């Protein structure tokens, strides 16, 4: 890995390459595409949270003037099970049933039928003409009630996975995950202090501004082109092909600019329906969700119940930890209980622990990934327990975490030993930070918590082309959400030794570039960046070979310095150095266009750790919470573009604060969401938050040429515990359930 002192471009903060188009309105987002003869699609959604679908009659809708196509579950093939990789999670058959209900509607808003018409008004009238006979069933809305043996079953074919013995009866428990080490009983016996508690967190939405949108057209050969807002158009293509029973080669997916995703746009909702409608209508079809549909019918993150018990000695050393997790999957399996189990104790070096996690079906939307999926819910419970231990031991909460912090060589609870990691460095940075050394404002409380995310590598491809004038084009297949085009340009410029301004990066469609897994898992700058670096190294090797041939020397007698081929020291050759532009200009005479490419399954993604702390003030008359200050410290490995890293840290903090203080899905007794809009689903806005201070720690990841470890997901993990611990410090009462909204805080104060 290159030393920081050797880096000229990586670590700088140039202007973002997509900035001008976005601020001038030229950037094309999902709903911006319009085509000749385009039809408008609308989806009919179940008014019931749990109902058997006895009949769907489309005939009256199809008979209406201006209606060109209508489909229901009967038009889609039934799929066998098949696992979906990445953050989409779950099973292909379940994703297919989520796209369009078959025998049952499993949540309020579940898609039941769809139409395509000449206008949205006609499409809405056609939805009213569709006749559906429902047998309404009692909804199951509470995760603990759903686990009961006598609970109403959502899926009679659901048999719990992960048990030591194959179950003989179906249940709402889709899966069970367990991790254990050491002697739990002996560990608790050695403890001087033991704390335990139960913590509930409701479903929450990613809150992206751009609703889901796509446009599909199918030609006379049966080949479809789909434009959509997505975090991974290659994976969308794969899922759509399986759901429709067609060949992957018959689908072309083009990613638009994306107005936020945070994990929520890693799975298909509209795309297979748009293709099916277009095929039947013989015309392009556009589908755009309303904001209400986004809330009711796309994937929030899991609501959870987590029980934790932790024991520690007087010196702060944790002797044992035990956790029990129940995560809501929604109406179909796919909850991130596995990552929740794996991450809850990950920042700490523990000899004795047990974690059991359960994925549970309830009559709510099928969950999707949300930024470090599963980790905020479980780690909130652990970070609150550690705060309670620190209080009982009269110990600084940072010192308690430092006493137990994982380090290089620590065996993670989920198996492998950590390579170099920056958790201790983050804690030490927090202890020295001016905001931590400052006095807590009068009437406020301070909270501390740790964050963690694994980060992943997986499959990526990249192609680097040199234009005739020596300018560089990078083509890769990851939609740019958090600044990946800038990071690719920076790493390409650094590797090739050329100015940043000489490089342009483009996100190719599924026919223009090699496969790239979804933009998620904090993998893009790490894995796709590694592919870009290797493609650039391919170009350097080619340029050195061409220079050698031009000079009449061996390839190993040529070196690459600052974007130029030069003779190696000691080579007795009277030649002029050849820049990248020189080599590009003579390419036709030396072998043709200069092209580098790479494809890989990246390994060695470095785990990311953080420490966050904040001062919060509670108005005891109204229950309102004011965030006075917030500080996020995180190990980025190496910050390729520090301003983007800072933005990720600030954005995650804002989302986590919102989830901790106000955000939640609220359901009535019939399973109908009562706050399906930004007016009632209370996300924080700028006036709700202070400037979020950041400090980037850099402990390079040895598995990446520039030390990268992903940074996008860790920032949302700590804020839940930070807020809970700060409110506890401010009012002297522990509130176990989130969000800590004014009514909940007032109720706790009244009860005390």
Key terms:
single chain, 752 residues, alpha+beta, Aldehyde Oxidoreductase, domain 4, Aldehyde Oxidoreductase, domain 3, 3 domains, seven-stranded mixed beta sheet, five-stranded mixed beta sheet, 26 strands, globular
Commentary on this structure:
With 752 residues, the protein is of the alpha+beta class. It folds into three domains: 169 residues, 2-Layer Sandwich (Aldehyde Oxidoreductase, domain 4); 190 residues, Aldehyde Oxidoreductase, domain 3 (Alpha-Beta Complex); 298 residues, Aldehyde oxidase/xanthine dehydrogenase, molybdopterin binding domain (Aldehyde Oxidoreductase, domain 4). Helices cover 28% and strands 24% of the residues. It is built from 21 helices and 26 strands. It has a seven-stranded mixed β-sheet, sandwiched between helices. It has a five-stranded mixed β-sheet with strand order 7-15-14-13-8. The protein has a four-stranded mixed β-sheet with strand order 16-24-25-26, with helices on both faces. Helix 10 links the parallel strand 14 and strand 15. The model has no long low-confidence stretch (mean pLDDT 96).
- Class by SSE composition: alpha+beta
Number of DSSP strands? 26
The DSSP helix count reads 21
Task: Tell the overall outline.
Answer: globular
- How far apart the termini lie comes to 56 Å
| Overall pLDDT confidence | 96
Q: What is the CATH H-level superfamily of the largest domain?
A: Aldehyde oxidase/xanthine dehydrogenase, molybdopterin binding domain
Low-confidence stretches: none
Strand content: 15-25%
Bin the helical content. Answer: 25-40%
């Amino acid at each position: 890995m290159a030393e920081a002192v050797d880096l000229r471009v990586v670590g700088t903060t140039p202007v973002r390459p997509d900035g001008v188009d976005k601020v001038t309105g030229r950037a094309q987002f999902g709903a911006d595409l319009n085509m000749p003869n385009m039809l408008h699609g609308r989806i009919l959604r179940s008014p019931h949270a749990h109902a058997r679908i006895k009949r769907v009659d489309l005939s009256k809708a199809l008979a209406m003037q201006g209606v060109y196509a209508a489909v229901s579950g009967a038009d889609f093939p039934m799929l066998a099970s098949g696992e979906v990789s990445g953050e989409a999670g779950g099973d292909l058959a379940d994703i297919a049933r989520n796209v369009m209900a078959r025998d049952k509607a499993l949540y309020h808003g579940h898609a039941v039928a769809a139409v395509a018409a000449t206008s949205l008004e006609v499409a809405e009238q056609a939805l009213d003409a569709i006749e559906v006979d429902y047998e309404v069933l009692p909804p199951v809305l509470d995760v603990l009630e759903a686990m009961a043996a006598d609970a109403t079953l959502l899926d009679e074919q659901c048999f719990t996975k992960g048990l030591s013995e194959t179950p003989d009866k179906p249940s709402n428990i889709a899966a069970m995950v367990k991790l254990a080490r050491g002697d739990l009983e002996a560990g608790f016996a050695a403890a001087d202090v033991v704390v335990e508690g139960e913590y509930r967190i409701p479903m929450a939405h990613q809150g992206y501004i751009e609703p889901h949108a796509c446009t599909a057209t199918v030609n006379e050969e049966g080949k479809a082109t789909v434009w959509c807002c997505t975090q991974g158009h290659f994976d969308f293509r794969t899922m759509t092909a399986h759901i429709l029973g067609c060949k992957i080669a018959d689908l072309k997916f083009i990613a638009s600019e994306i107005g936020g995703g945070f994990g929520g746009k890693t799975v298909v909702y509209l795309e297979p329906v748009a293709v099916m409608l277009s095929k039947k209508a013989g015309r392009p079809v556009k589908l755009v969700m309303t904001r209400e549909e986004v809330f009711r019918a796309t994937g929030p993150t899991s609501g959870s119940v987590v029980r934790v018990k932790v024991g520690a000695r007087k010196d702060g050393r944790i002797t044992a930890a035990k956790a029990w997790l129940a995560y809501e999957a929604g109406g179909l399996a796919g909850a991130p209980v596995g990552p929740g189990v794996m991450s809850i104790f990950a920042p700490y070096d523990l000899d004795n622990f047990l974690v059991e996690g359960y994925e549970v079906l309830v009559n709510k939307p099928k969950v999707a990934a949300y930024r470090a999926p599963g980790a905020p819910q479980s780690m909130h419970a652990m970070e609150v327990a550690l705060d309670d231990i620190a209080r009982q031991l009269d110990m600084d909460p940072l010192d308690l975490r430092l006493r137990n912090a994982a380090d290089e060589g620590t065996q993670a609870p989920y198996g492998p030993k950590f390579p170099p990691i920056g958790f201790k460095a983050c804690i030490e940075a927090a202890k020295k930070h001016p905001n931590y050394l400052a006095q807590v404002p009068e009437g406020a409380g301070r909270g501390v918590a740790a964050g963690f995310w694994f980060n992943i590598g997986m499959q990526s491809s990249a192609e680097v082309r040199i234009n005739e004038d020596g300018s560089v084009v990078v083509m890769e297949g990851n939609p740019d959400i958090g600044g990946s085009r800038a990071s690719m340009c920076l790493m390409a410029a650094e590797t090739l030794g050329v100015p940043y301004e000489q490089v342009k990066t483009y996100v190719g469609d599924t026919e223009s570039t090699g496969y790239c897994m979804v933009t998620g898992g904090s993998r893009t700058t790490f894995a796709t960046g590694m592919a870009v670096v290797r493609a650039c190294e391919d170009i350097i090797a080619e340029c050195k070979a061409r220079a050698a041939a031009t000079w009449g020397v061996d390839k190993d007698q040529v070196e690459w310095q600052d974007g130029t081929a030069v003779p190696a020291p000691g080579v007795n050759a009277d030649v002029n150095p050849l820049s990248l532009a020189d080599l590009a200009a003579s390419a036709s005479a030396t072998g043709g266009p200069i092209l580098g490419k790479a494809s890989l399954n990246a390994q060695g993604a470095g785990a990311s750790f953080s420490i966050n702390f904040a001062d919060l003030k509670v108005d005891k008359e109204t229950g309102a919470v004011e965030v006075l200050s917030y500080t996020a410290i995180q190990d980025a490995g190496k910050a390729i573009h520090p301003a983007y890293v800072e933005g990720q840290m600030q954005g995650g903090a804002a989302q986590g604060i919102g989830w901790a203080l106000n955000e939640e899905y609220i359901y009535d007794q019939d399973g109908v969401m009562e706050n399906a809009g930004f007016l009632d689903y209370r996300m924080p806005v700028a006036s709700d938050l202070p400037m979020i201070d950041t400090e980037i720690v850099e402990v390079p990841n040895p598995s990446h040429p520039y030390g990268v470890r992903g940074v996008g997901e860790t920032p949302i993990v700590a804020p839940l515990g930070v807020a809970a611990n700060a409110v506890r410090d401010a009012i002297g009462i522990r509130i176990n359930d989130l969000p800590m909204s004014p009514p909940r805080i007032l109720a706790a104060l009244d009860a005390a």
